[in-house]
Design a protein that fits this description.
By secondary structure, this protein is α/β, with parallel strands linked by helices. It has two domains: 4-180 and 224-247, Rossmann fold (3-Layer(aba) Sandwich), CATH 3.40.50; 183-222 and 251-282 and 301-323, Alpha-Beta Complex (UDP-galactose 4-epimerase, domain 1), CATH 3.90.25.10. The chain has helices at 13-24, 55-61, 79-82, 88-108, 149-168, 194-204, 226-237, 255-266, 289-295, 303-323; strands at residues 4-8, 28-33, 46-49, 68-71, 113-119, 171-177, 180-181, 210-214, 220-222, 224-225, 245-247, 252-254, 271-275. Strands 3-2-1-4-5-6-11 form a seven-stranded parallel sheet, with helices on both faces. The chain has a two-stranded parallel ribbon with strand order 7-10.
Length: 324
């Protein structure tokens, strides 16, 4: 019998890649989102356009006992969207409502397995002040003090999924994503994340010119290529371990170093102009000890390799826009 999967947020970056992955594994896939994918045709067998904040629409989506449900739908974006404070109410209300609706609909349909994509943004800001030595192990989550309302909503939703697992015996699985990047994602408009934004700025710049970098550029992050994110996601969902667990890379770089890598890939000499802008915490890096212990797996793709593929795609988008 053909296995079935539901991907909530299938019109988004990670969701679009996940639909393709599941189809390649032989699943019948239903995707759902407010919109179709912006940069590629969906491969889903069935794609429903609608608002998962609407309880009745959500119940119409979860109209059967899917083998696997992946809940990626959220109101989110990069630092330019999350850390300004201007979208806090929307971020919290929209994402929390989606999770309340999806989880309850899955409970009422007795869904076997449901995955939830949390975020490293839920880790306490006080453990991420030293850019050279951030603490992001899973047990460091409490006492809670995320640096954004986005992080607080992720923490609430983690507890929601854990409560349904504890009270109702549901098989819920939670991953804390660390800066997922790759082709076919938002690269302009304000919601893009650092790798895509820097790829765009470098692609648009001429060799010898400068691009703007928010802050001093010494803030650190790790970035995980999307295909490795999917490896961790599907392994977790099919395991006996519920999480929460980090899904991220341990290859930590400064934002300045990220610019240098992309500039080298592009074959351009690029100078940095440091300007005021939202930055988030000073340092963040995935701690992969728990995922290695529980799933005998951890990502290993070098950052540069993922950036080469991402830059090639973003550069093609920039070229296409310039011709339009």
């Amino acid at each position: 019998m053909t296995r079935s999967a539901l991907v909530c947020g299938a019109g988004g970056f990670i969701g679009g890649h996940l639909v393709r992955r599941l189809k390649g594994e032989g699943f019948w896939v239903r995707g759902v989102d407010l919109k179709f994918h912006e940069y590629s045709e969906t491969e889903a067998d069935d794609f429903m356009i609608g608002d998962l904040r609407d309880q009745w629409f959500c119940r119409s989506v979860v109209d059967r006992a899917f083998d696997e449900v992946y809940q990626l739908a959220a109101d989110m974006g990069g630092a330019g969207y999350i850390f300004t404070g201007e979208h806090d109410a929307d971020v919290m209300h929209n994402s929390a409502t989606i999770n309340l609706n999806v989880l309850d609909a899955c409970y009422k349909r007795r869904i076997g397995r449901i995955f939830y994509s949390s975020s490293a943004c839920m880790y306490p800001a006080y453990n991420q002040e030293d850019p050279s030595n951030p603490l992001c192990s899973e047990e460091s989550a409490y006492p809670a003090a995320p640096d954004s309302e986005y992080g607080w909503e992720k923490l609430f939703s983690e507890r929601l999924y854990l409560a349904y697992r504890r009270n109702y015996g549901m098989k819920t699985f939670i991953a804390r994503y660390h800066n997922i990047f790759g082709p076919f994602g938002t690269w302009t408009g304000g919601r893009e994340k650092a790798p895509a934004a820097i790829c765009r700025k470098v692609a648009e710049a001429k060799s010898g010119s400068e691009i703007e970098v928010w802050g001093d550029g010494n803030q650190t992050r790790s970035f995980l290529y999307v295909e490795e994110c999917l490896d961790g996601t599907t392994r977790l969902t099919r395991s006996g371990f519920s999480g929460p667990v980090n899904v991220g890379s341990e290859e930590m770089v400064t934002i300045n170093q990220l610019v240098d890598i992309v500039s080298d890939i592009a074959g351009k000499q690029i100078f940095k102009k440091h300007v005021a802008g939202p930055q988030g915490v000073r340092g963040r890096n995935s701690d992969n000890r728990l995922i290695q212990e529980k799933l005998q797996w951890a990502p290993n793709m070098p950052l540069r390799k993922g950036l080469e593929m991402t830059y090639a795609w973003v550069e093609s988008q920039v070229r296409g826009n310039s011709r339009a």
